[in-house]
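Sample pair:
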Amino acid sequence: MTSSLSGLRRACTLAASVLVLSGPGAAAQAPRPGVDWPQFRGAQASGVAEGFEAPVRWNAETGENIRWTTPIPGLGHSSPIVWGDLVCVTTADSGEDDELKVGLYGDIESVANDQPQQWEVRCLDKGTGGERWTAVAHQGVPARARHPKSSHASSTLATDGIHLVAMFGSEGLFAYEIDTGRELWTVDLGVLGSGYFRAPTALWGFAASPVIHDGLVVIQADILRGSFLAAFDVATGDQRWRVDRDDVPTWSTPTVHVVNGRAQIVVNGFRHIGGYDLKTGDELWRMVGGGDIPTPTPVVSDGLIVITNAHGNEAPIFAISEGASGDITPPTGALSNDDLVWSQRRDGAYMQTPIVYDGILYNCRDNGVLSAYELRTGRRLFQARIDGGGSGFTASPVAADGKLYFSSEDGSVYVLKAGPNLEVLSENPMGETLMATPALSAGVLYIRTRGHLVAVGSE
């Protein structure tokens, strides 16, 4: 009898797992901490994956601590994501060696890219780097030009363990079954003109990534005309709500954060930093001001929402209470109020999303100058340059196992010891340009270079 009951339990468990795991209509799964990296910057955009030993040194040329290297054709700055035994990226492939100009410069002109492209989603075996499936989302000449430092595949994928969503800007929003690559639905969002609002002919390409939460796909599309925030049903692609945003083009991915049982979408912006109710799109709070080309993603830790941006008159860091409501814009000259816990007005980042690790906020500017702050107070602990100077830093940092990983555009990954002082543990050249933020899973770094996806892990 005991054996029969045990067998019945096993059968019921298997049936339940099949219901959860199979098919696009199945229930979404929670990411496994330290293992699954389901979107840009991982779960909740924290950039942190704990619980495993992470590498300090590796050598891309000799193969030391390199698990595998797989070529990725085309040009794409989207970050890898990891779920289960898959690691996935996007790319836009013209079949040519597309122009990419990296480094510190102020050129705002666009790259026309009038050659036909093939927009692809590529999923590899996490353990070997072998191809599992590739889907061609779109083919044709790009609807809009891009920045010479950008790509036509800059938005990172998002998954809930069942659906895999790819955002290709003016080329559309696409959803796939993550296990098989079967296309589930597409949404045409129209032409999304992403460029510098003070020079509208300078088109730079779309970069905000989708976020999936509670059955909804959230898209922030701050563009030259008709900016909006929208939510779509992850299973069908049906639009659930859409709200207009009075803002200039931004390139920031939103963050979903739950406060007292209510999920809010936190967005970066120039005219409209703020929070929205996930279910309805209703505005919860807002503030005005900051840099006029917002790119970093909002980060939430210990009850604070950290937002930074740069360019123009300001380069602020804002630490905002997660329970903020209404218009929280401080009076001119004020650094705090009831909802703005603290702020810095000149240390903010232009490209990189900051990271909070063990109560310290690390914020790196595009020239490689890193500042560290006590998260709760805003007291600066140090400010120093990571490298010797001269390289640009665009990819955002990630952290694990007491270490921070910063990638320079010229191809080096710097490993820093987390703490109140700058301590560089190693510099690891990858041999190619680095523009994409790495992913972390079970102690392995998945680094997307100019032409490859590389798995780095200690033996």
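The domain at 28-456 is CATH 2.130.10.10 (Methylamine Dehydrogenase; Chain H).
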